Each structure stands twice: as C-alpha cells, then as structure tokens.
Amino acid sequence: MTLATLRAAPPAHDPADFLLRLIPADFLAEIGWDDERQVLFMPMDHPLLGWKACKVTGCGMPTRGRTQLCLPCERELATSGQDEAAFLASQRVTRRRGVGRCLVGCQRPWKSSLTPLCEAHLHRRKRTPGLSLEEFLADPSLTPLPGFGECDVVACDRIRYGSKSGFCKAHGTRWGQDFQSYPHLDRATWCRLEPAIEEMNNVTLRGLTPLARAQVLYGLYERCRREMKTGLTEVRPLVNDLRRRQSDSLDDLVDTQRGMRARQVLESFRLAHQRALSSPATECTKNTWDLHVFGHAGRLRFGKIVQPWLREATKRWAVEDLPRRRGDVAGTVQEHINHMARLSESLRLQRTDRGETVFGLGRDDIVQFTNRMAYLESRGDISSRTRHENCKHVRRMLTRMRVLGLTRAGEPLEGLPPDFAMRDEDVPAAPERGDEPGRALPLPIVRGLCDALPLLESMASRDYRIAVELLIDTGRRPDEICQLAWDCTRQDTDGGWLLIYDNIKEQRLGRELPITEATAKLIHEQKRVARERFPHTDPRQLKLLARVRRNPRGVHGLAEETLASRHREWVDSLPPLITPEGQEFVKEDIVPYAHRHTYAQRHADAGVPVDVLSELMDHRSLAITQTYYRVSAVRRREAVDKVARHQLDRHGAPTWREAQTLLDGQRARYARQAISQVAVPFGSCGEPSNVQAGGGACPFRWQCGGCDHFRTDASYLPELKGYLDELRRTKERVLAATGLDDWAREKALPSEEEITRVKHLIARVGDDLDRLTDTERNELEEAITLVRRSRRVVPLGMPHVRQPAPTLRLERP
Fold first, then answer.
1. What is d(CA 687, CA 696) in angstroms, rounded to the nearest whole number?
2. What is the end-to-end Cα distance of the chain in Å, rounded?
3. pLDDT digit string (tens) for 46-73?
C-alpha cells in the first residue's frame, strides 16, 4: 500500500472502543476493574499498582508517598503533640462512617463501624435499652428495609443516607458546608463535578466521558506493560481533574499546576493513547514524527525544510528508508533530514521565489548550494567532513527520490527539471585521516580512570562501575554491555572464559569473546549480586546489569543514555588528566565508546594481527577494524626509516642513499612513509601510471622482478619466500601437465631468470641482515613488525597459525 493510499484511508474505529479493545481482559481483572460500577480497586499487593497500608492499628487506609500514615492519621498526628513512634504505639482507629450496610440486612448504610445499624433500626434499638447488639439482631420481628437509591453525586457509588437529602452521609455533609459558603451554588452542577469519597483503594471513573475513561485505563495498561509504577496518589487527582473540568480527553488537561510525578503520569497516559490511535499514515501528515509508530525510538523533525515540495519529498524518502534501519535510527535519519534542510536553506536565501517553484529550479541552484557549503566551511560554521557528508547525502537522496518515482504526475517533485541533481564531482573529497591521535585513549589516561573507579561507584552505583570496567576490559559497544544477559559467560574446551553477548548493531546474536580470568571473576560476582536482588525472576530473562527504576523483575538492562550521563558526570568530576607529554587531556573525548577504540589500540600495539583483531571486534571487514587504531607518526617514521635503509632494487642493490637525498621539507613525510607508493605481492612499485591506478594498471604486466620501478626490503621477506615457492610449484605443475601446446607451455612456465632473480633478492636480504649486530637485528625486527602492521600487505593466500589474544587487562583497585 502506498503512502498516498494510507493517507486516504478514513478512520475505521471509535477511539474509546478501540482503546478498550486493546486492553486484555485478564489485565482489567488483575487491576480490580469493576465495569458495572466503573470503579477501579487497585490491589494492595500488585507489583506496579500496589500500595502500603497505614500503620495505625485498625486503619488500613493507603499511605501517601513514603510516609507510614494515611492523610487522616497524619492530621491526627499533627494535632496530637506526639512523635510518630509514640503515636503509632498509642493510636487506635475507633470508627469509620458510611462504608457499610445495616446488619439487619437493609439496603441502607450503617451509622458507623461501632454502630452498624441504619438510622431506623438504631432508633428502634434505643427504645429497648439493655439489649446487646447480638440480642437485638436476634429479634425475629426485625425486617430489612429498602434503600433510598444511590447518592446524587455522579462520581459516588454509595447509597443515600436518608430519603430527603439525596446524598450519602459524607456528601450530604460536604454539600451542606459548600452551600452555606456559596448560597448561589447550583446543586446539579455540584453533583456533576464533586469527586467520590476516597475509600481504601478505590478510584471511581464515574462521571468521565467514555474516551477519557478509556484513556485512563489504557494508560494504566501501557505503564504496567512498560513496568512503570503508578500509585493511587497519582491516579485519583488525575481522574478528579478530568471530572471537575468536564474534559472530553486527557489532551484537554493543563499540567502546569501539577507536581513532577503527576506530570510524568499524565504525559505517559497522553503518549500511550496518542500512539495507540496513531499510525504511519497519520504521522506522515505531521512535521514531527513519533518514531514509536514506525517501530523505533525518538522523533524526526522536518520543520526546517521550508519548501512544501521538498519537505514532502523528504518525508516520502524517510518513510521508505526507516524499515531498512536499525540501531540509532532517529539520529541517523535526522542527520539526513538536516542535510536536506541545508539545501532548503540555500534555496530560500538565494532564489527570489524562496525555492517554492519546482519547475523553475535547475543546475544553477545546485552550483549555488555547493558554493554555499564551501562558504560555510570557510567561515568555520561547518567542518570539511560535514561539507563532504552533506553534499554526498544530498546527492544520494535526490537520486533516491527520482528512483521512488516522486517526479511523476501528482507527486511532490512533479515538474522538477532533470538538471536539478548533484553530480559526482559536486561532492568534495573526504578529508583524509592524518597522524593526529584517534579516538583511543592514551594508556596513562586509562590507568587514571581505572584508579578512579571507586569514585564512580560512590557517585552512581556498583552497576555503573561494573559497566565501565567491562567496557574497558572487553571493548564492546555500550549497548552490548548494558544488555548483557545474566548468564553471559562460559568456558571453552581449554578452560578459558568466553563472554557471550549480542552484537546489536549488526544483529549478530550469541557472539563469543575471549576474556581474562579477572574479567570473568568480575562478571560472576555481579551475577551473584543480580540474583540476590531478583531471586524470583527467570534467569533466562534476568539482566546482568539491571536498571533500578521501572524494573521490578530485573528484565531491563541499564539505559545506554543513562550510562553515558553517569560516565560524563564521573569524568568531569576528576582532576585534570595529564598525558605523558605533560599536556592536559580533553575530558570531552572520554566517552563510553572511546573504550572500544582503546581496546583495539591496545591489541594492535601488542602485535595482534589485523584479522584476529577484526574477529575480536566482531567486524565484517578488515578495513573497518583498521579505522579503530593507529600507529603513531613518530614510531611509524622511525620504523620506515630503519627498514628503508635496507631497501633493495630488482638487482639487490641498496636504494637508501638515493632515497635519502629526497627526504627534505614536506617531501620527507611522504617519502619515509611510502618510498614505493603502491603495494605488489612481494614489495612495492613506483611506476607512475600504476601508482595512479592504485596498482591495477601495470604497463609491463606485473613483471616486477625485471622492472626498475620495483623495490623490496626485509619487511617483504615472507612474501618473497612465498612467491619463490609459488614459482617453483608452478614450474613443476606446468612441466608435468599434458595436453598443452609448446607455445602455451612456454608462456605459462616461469622463467629461470625470474626464479634466479627472486632467489638472489632473498639471499641479498639475508646477507644484509647477517651483517647486523644482535641489537641492530632486534631493532630492525621490531621496526618490520610495526611497518607490516601499519600497511596493507597484498596477501598470497599462505596458511598461518593465528596468534591468541594477549592478556591486556589493566589492573585496578
């Protein structure tokens, strides 16, 4: 079904009836809903709607907030002159009026719990003094009397106290007091607006409109489904306010006069019914979307796109794009919308019609937009990366809109000229990453954070400390740590511990990560703590790091946003953090995700191969893993310098003297990092056309062993040996093959000259290494390791044994 069809569909339900049908019948029974009386009796022992009884003996009324007393007993305490302990020890509730029926069996209320007779039978008993209540009730001549009907107050479900007043006892007293104060008070209006008598755990919804009543019940259902606690003291005032204002819906209430807790409940009730009655079709008519309707969290805002046609087209793009997203959907899609908002701003500022005439647009408007982006960058309003991302995504989105058919008749982009489109050359090149530090934290800074972990525990809680420790130890994403299951470890066949987690971003579940014994011990201790907090929860549903609020069963993990907030407060409270160079480290860079980059950097520095590290990071691509760590510029240059001193040409002659003459000024950095600019399987190539093509356009058909542009050094020794072995195997295979013509055999057969040249290069590299002292050899081997790790080596498909992950856990208090 298309978006246009969805928008044309009329509403197919009555809102009140629709909301009620969404509430399971067993839930209504669970919370004590009496549909006939329209009264809610909130259970005392309910985990989310429950309440505590007043501690005064014989009272049992619900308490208010965290106090031990109900409101009437609080008032008695205030006038008693006693402290609370003495009051509780001495106070006894002696009566409660108007809450029971006459014990004779009348349909009339008793006078009080100590005098459980209606007025008529009480008057008769007074005429026969000396009889106990039991003897009086045993009189066979006693006849139950009919009642007087229900109280005239709409919200009240009590019976009238007498035949003339029309009210129950309590409302009769209230009416008398109010009428005495306001003689012109209208009785019918008063009966319609007056709240019910608060009696134990009842909340009466009588007197509300059907829609308002359904909204309250559905709001309670949604709060319980989301495991949010709701008390009598929040629901009663809300219901009374609806009745007093005669509001048709919760949307009519003004919450400015309410306390914070009451505002939260009201807002959650509103949000619940708005989402229930909404749909993608209704959201698409708005300029602000609630993504809950689309199955995601957060909101999208289109208000900054001022041209109606462009705003509508962007909405259509968004509704097509949302189902393909996961993770931080709101942030990612909103970023794309903001890119279109910049295009909208450019059209508004640089066209006389403010860009509202679609058919008047053209190539000039695209050029104006790209120039404006360059202007904003030059002014410092945006970075070069933002400029690149903005132009790139605008090009993709405009192209996608055309693919979606939005330029057809009747669509938002009808009449849009074909040249209103961004070309590839309109997108500026992405800024290249230089030698500046990455997002990984320096090791001394991490040690300082580990030393300060006790402070985090005192500021937040133990759970947040454990979460940060696991971020540091495992390098997992924050959401992966927050959502760890209670049973998240197991031992492998060698007795080592594995962390079991879900890669939420890539939807790869049940991933395994080797962890140290110390990290496993940390997790097992947290498992014990979590089990003690939630002993009755199914372990399969329990979270290792269960949040405190809105989580009575421990099935919800810490919120990633809350973890980030507590982490920021903790870092900001620390004294200045100083790097080994004596510089103060920027605290804004210490974020939870930085620990993942630090984990990658520690392992890269320890010599873990990139393919192993990619598995540890659970990346699908080695290229992604390589963006998570960096080799420092100083170490890389020193390493390249050492290796370059042993660089050889195709004849095995040293090339360092020639190269060294070029290492001056700005050319030094380039030459030292890549004397031969493009990699080949066992060295590097400096042939200009091949370099320009990225190694894919050798004019000599990759005859590296006989080319003056070829260079190799000791760091390529494994590749040289592998290539020599491959040449020998190929020679044997070709010579043994049958069915080949002579010319084909000659072409496929490696030449003796090439085999001899490679053997000579290997021997020359070996001789060069043999002339080194032990110290020089060790330094060169370290440099070779660093150089090989910091470049992409062209693979030969050679088998190898993987290096196990080293123990890199930082000690902490």
1. 11
2. 60
3. 889 988 888 888 787 888 766 778 888 8
Q: What tokens appear for 495 in the block?
A: 């007795």
Q: Domain ranges in the chain?
A: 17-51+201-277, 58-94, 95-193, 282-426, 443-626, 633-789
Report the alpha-carbon distance of residue 197 to residue 175 in Å, rounded: 13
> Is the distance from CB of 207 to CB of 218 less than 8 angstroms?
no
Tokens of 441: 């934290």
Does the pTM surpass 0.90? The reply is no
Q: CB-based burial of residue 804 (10 Å sphere; 0-12 exposed, 13-18 middle, 19+ buried)?
A: exposed
Q: Who contacts 414 (Cβ-Cβ below 8 Å, separation ≥6)?
A: 358, 407, 408
Which of 622, 624, 628, 640 is closest to 604 using CA atoms? 628
User: CA-to-CA distance for 397 and 392, rounded, in angstroms?
Assistant: 9
Instruction: Please choose, from the candidates 500, 602, 597, the residue with its C-alpha nearest in 3D space to the C-alpha of residue 807.
Output: 602
Most confident of 49-53, 218-222, 579-583: 218-222
| Nearest 10 degrees: Cα torsion 24, 30, 35, 38 | -120
DSSP secondary structure letters along 636-703: HHHHHHHHHTT-B-TTS-B-HHHHHTT--TTHHHHHHH-SS-EEETTEEE--HHHHHTTTS--TT-S-
What CATH superfamily classification does 443-626 receive? Answer: Intergrase catalytic core (1.10.443.10)
Q: Which of 35, 34, 37, 43 is nearest to 155 (CA)?
A: 37
Mean pLDDT of 646-651: 52
Question: Would you say 713 and 679 are in contact if contact means Cβ atoms under 8 Å apart?
Answer: no
d(CA 263, CA 347): 42
**Cα–Cα dist 193/214, whole Å:** 19
Q: Mean pLDDT across the stretch 171-189?
A: 93
- Say how far apart CA 792 and CA 627 lie, in whole Å: 13
Using an 8 Å Cβ cutoff, are 271 and 263 in contact? Answer: no
Strands 678-680 and 508-515: unpaired
Distance in angstroms (rounded) separating the CA atoms of residues 258 and 266: 9
Phi, psi of 35 (to 5 degrees): -70, -35
- What does the CA dihedral 259, 265, 270, 276 come to, rounded to 10 degrees? 170
Mean pLDDT of 264-275: 92
pLDDT at 94 (0 to 100): 57
